[in-house]
Specification:
The chain is mainly α. 77% of the residues lie in helices and 1% in strands.
Length: 477
């Protein structure tokens, strides 16, 4: 067996073993949704980071850095700022609220918090999450196809089939506990991939000269116009806003065993994120230098320029195959698959829990037992996985584009609502509805501006909508 294949298959068996092991720990819907609040700070921190950084970090960001250079540092700064703000502003107060209201999902929390007896907030937020998550999951399946295509020569379609089956299988088995413990393994592999690979690449560069790698002229877009450079910088920074409204990350804050353990998880998450994000950027920057040097091979042919790479998002597996021993390349390329799996499984889990708890149990079959609800959750896991796979198969968009759309939509819809719910006492349920709808609407139908991306405009308009409608309701009362 090829050493790369051996490393990759070993990783898959490890993940499947974790899924099988956690079956015994999943006895009811609470276990399936939040692990029964039994998971400690280390597992939660790695799970949050692995779930938060999907195929876009390990494929999309290196590809963008290879094409656009130091301009991508704005994305790195934006994302790191968002991670820090999310852990500081949301994690602890939200975990306390989960304890107070005894909830499993974000829509259920909104309903109980605002005494929404009609369930309007719950159904709107449930549908928004399911809609955007389906795009997000599709992006992970698409990314998996790319990695397996470069590594083993599978067609992209066959690669997507393999990844889809594995992700659905272990999510079905163990629910949140399976997802969290596999995230722990996947988070470690991702971190090693993003830190070690650029270091190895740096020593492959003949001069080891940082000026050859970092071209500060690209920091503001190089030769592009001033407005385009500013827009690109704002666009990169705006990724940070999305972290305030991602339900699959917020589920980690809700699931930790004790609110007091948030401080420990926060430190671990920061220690993971900072080197990983800079590592992803340098993977692309160093990849560009090595491509221009003509020392990399693709399918046995020398790569002489970026144009010889059919898809820039494949630069990470290309570097791994060229620079690392085969067995290590197999493990590190597993880091790319890990990034996709850890995000797709988390989003599958959140989506299916919400459909089961917030739609089926709330509106259709209120008297169902926990065991029957668990069956519904597993049925929805398969259904959403199949729909996402079909979307990935039909879409021609890059991973980064699909993630950007879903990320912006979730961040704009839920970010302002969650922040104001936790930190502004005058927010009203009518304002929450306005924020959810406006954030979604202005993502799907963005207000185009040459300087401001939909991730910013939709977020700001959602925030304004919440404040205006809440104050107007107070005035009427």
């Amino acid at each position: 067996m090829d050493a790369i294949a051996f490393g990759f298959i070993s990783y898959l068996f490890l993940i499947l073993f974790v899924g099988l092991y956690t079956v015994k720990k999943t006895k009811n819907l609470q276990d399936y949704a939040l692990g029964g609040h039994k998971l400690g700070p280390i597992v939660i921190a790695f799970s949050e980071r692995a779930s938060g950084e999907s195929a876009w970090l390990i494929l999309g960001l290196p590809g963008a850095a290879m094409l656009f250079g130091m301009l991508e540092i704005w994305t790195v700064i934006g994302c790191l700022s968002g991670i820090i703000l999310s852990w500081i502003l949301l994690a602890y107060p939200l975990r306390k609220e989960v304890e107070k209201y005894n909830v499993l999902t974000l829509p259920e929390y909104f309903e109980k918090k605002y005494d929404d007896r009609m369930g309007v907030i719950r159904i709107i937020s449930s549908l928004i999450i399911t809609f955007f998550f389906t795009f997000y999951i599709a992006a992970q399946f698409s990314g998996a196809g790319k990695v397996l295509n470069i590594t083993f020569g599978f067609t992209q379609f066959n690669g997507m089939v393999i990844a889809t089956i594995i992700i659905i299988f272990y999510t079905l088995l163990g629910g949140f506990t399976a997802v969290a413990f596999t995230d722990l393994v996947q988070g470690i592999i991702m971190f090693c991939t993003l830190v070690i690979l650029p270091i190895v690449g740096f020593f492959e560069i003949s001069t080891n000269n940082m000026s050859e790698i970092i071209h500060w002229g690209t920091l503001y877009g190089g030769e592009t116009s001033k407005n385009a450079s500013i827009a690109a910088s704002i666009g990169g920074l705006s990724w940070g806003l999305g972290y305030l409204g991602q339900p699959h990350l917020i589920a980690r804050y809700m699931a930790i065993d004790k609110p007091e353990h948030i401080k420990i998880s926060r430190k671990i998450a920061f220690a993971w994120a900072i080197p990983a994000f800079f590592g992803a950027m340098f993977t692309g920057l160093i990849g560009k230098v090595l491509v221009d040097s003509g020392v990399l091979l693709l399918n046995g042919n020398i790569i002489n320029s970026i144009n010889d790479i059919p898809d820039p998002e494949k630069i990470m597996p290309i570097l791994a195959n060229n620079l690392l021993p085969n067995w290590l390349a197999g493990i590190f390329i597993s880091g790319a698959i890990a990034a996709m799996m850890s995000t797709a499984d988390s989003q599958l889990l959140v989506s299916t829990t919400i459909l089961t708890k917030d739609i089926v149990n709330r509106y259709l079959f209120q008297s169902l037992s926990d065991s029957k609800l668990l069956v519904f959750s597993r049925i929805f896991t398969i259904l959403i996985g199949v729909i996402a796979f079909y979307m990935a198969m039909k879409s021609e968009k890059l991973v980064l584009e699909m993630v950007s759309y879903a990320w912006g939509g979730l961040g704009s819809s839920f970010g302002p609502v969650i922040v104001l719910t936790l930190w502004w006492k005058k927010i009203r349920k009518e304002g929450v509805v306005a924020g959810l709808i406006s954030g979604t609407f202005f993502t799907i139908y963005p207000m185009y501006n040459s300087l401001i991306t939909p991730r910013v405009s939709a977020f700001v308009l959602s925030m304004i909508s919440i404040i205006i409608i809440s104050k107007f309701k107070d005035y009427l009362d």
